Amino acid sequence: MRLQYSAAQLRLMAEKLRLDMVDSLHEAGSGHPGGSLSIAEIMSVLYFHEMNLDPSNPQWEERDRFVLSKGHAAPAYYAALAERGFFDVSLLKTLRKIDSILQGHPDCKKVPGVDISTGSLGQGISVACGMACAAKKKGSPARVYCVLGDGEIQEGQVWEAAMSAGHYKLGNLVAFLDNNNLQIDGAVDHVMSVYPIKEKFEAFGWRVIELDGNDVGQILTALELARTSKDQPTLLLGHTTKGKGVSFMENQAGWHGSAINDEQYAAAMKELKERYAQAEKGCAAE
Q1: For residue 43, what is the domain's CATH number?
Q2: Which residue from 120, 163, 126 is spatially nearest to 144, judged by alpha carbons?
Q3: Which runs of E-coded beta strand occur in 28-170?
Q4: Would residue 1 count as lying in a domain?
Q5: Distance between CA 214 and CA 15 in Å, rounded?
Q6: Residue 2 resides in a domain
Q7: Which string of DSSP letters, residue by residue, matches 244-272?
Q8: pLDDT per residue as tens, the chain (286 positions)
Q9: Are the C-beta atoms of residues 237 and 225 closer than 8 Å to each other?
Q10: CA gap 254, 32 in Å, rounded
């Protein structure tokens, strides 16, 4: 079933997901804060408005599929799954523990709601293409959603997948590019430029919609447009802020995979709780 959260409710959920992420990452003592925080809005919109899912039946054949191609952003994925009801929210505090189902990268054999294990960059989008192709051939209503990192698209396999999706006219495939222009070694355009992104995907037959990837309203509009594409895969080229919501993490490559100490945790949670309170006011005023 698709939930129909309002834009204000989705903004509130995005802030809740950020609180969950930082809490679990601090508890773990390791992980990837920057690229998890940057996709909070897209995860909120996908899981609480866009995707057709049944948490009580994670393997429902006609469900929409989700692939986190940038698997290191698992804290965002786990937070969305927990808040959506696939497993208890208390499990988020077990992130990266030796006996936990919530490892550093998603494992489809252990985590309810995870459609494919990811982590080796570039492979997720290929799997998403396969899922979309299978659904199209079977006449299934299932749609496939995939989140890519901009550093990730330096991988050649991404472009093989892009070519395949265009060739097979996979109108049921939507990829979201988390374009925060930072990767583990620094700025993407300095490490290995992937620009211009829009023109490259268009050359492979994709419909490309540029947007502010941290703006719920723009994401909702873009996803509605994507549903009108019958014979073209869609790329939502989302310009985002790495570390979004925590001022000292924002636009800092060093927070790609850094641990959060107690002092930083307290400061981050203070900011995020203030953002959550503001979003609550927005819901109340709606």
Answers
A1: 3.40.50.970
A2: 126
A3: 65-68, 144-149
A4: no
A5: 11
A6: no
A7: TT-TTTTT-GGGSS----HHHHHHHHHHH
A8: 899 999 999 999 999 999 999 999 999 999 999 999 999 999 999 999 999 999 999 999 999 999 999 999 999 999 999 999 999 999 999 999 999 999 999 999 999 999 999 999 999 999 999 999 999 999 999 999 999 999 999 999 999 999 999 999 999 999 999 999 999 999 999 999 999 999 999 999 999 999 999 999 999 999 999 999 999 999 999 999 999 999 999 999 999 999 999 999 999 999 999 999 999 999 988 7
A9: no
A10: 10
The residues pairing with 183 across neighbouring beta strands, listed in sequence order, are 186
Range of the domain at 174: 7-285
The partner residues of 186 in beta bridges, in order of sequence, read 183
Asked whether 240 and 214 are in contact (CB, 8 A), the reply is yes
> Does 50 fall in a domain?
yes
Task: Determine if residue 169 is left, alpha or beta; phi over 0 gives left, psi from -120 to 50 gives alpha, anything else beta.
Answer: left
Number of domains in the chain: 1
Residue 12 has which token pair? 């509130």
Distance CA 76, CA 40 (A): 7
% helix / strand / coil in the chain, to the nearest 5?
A: 50, 10, 40
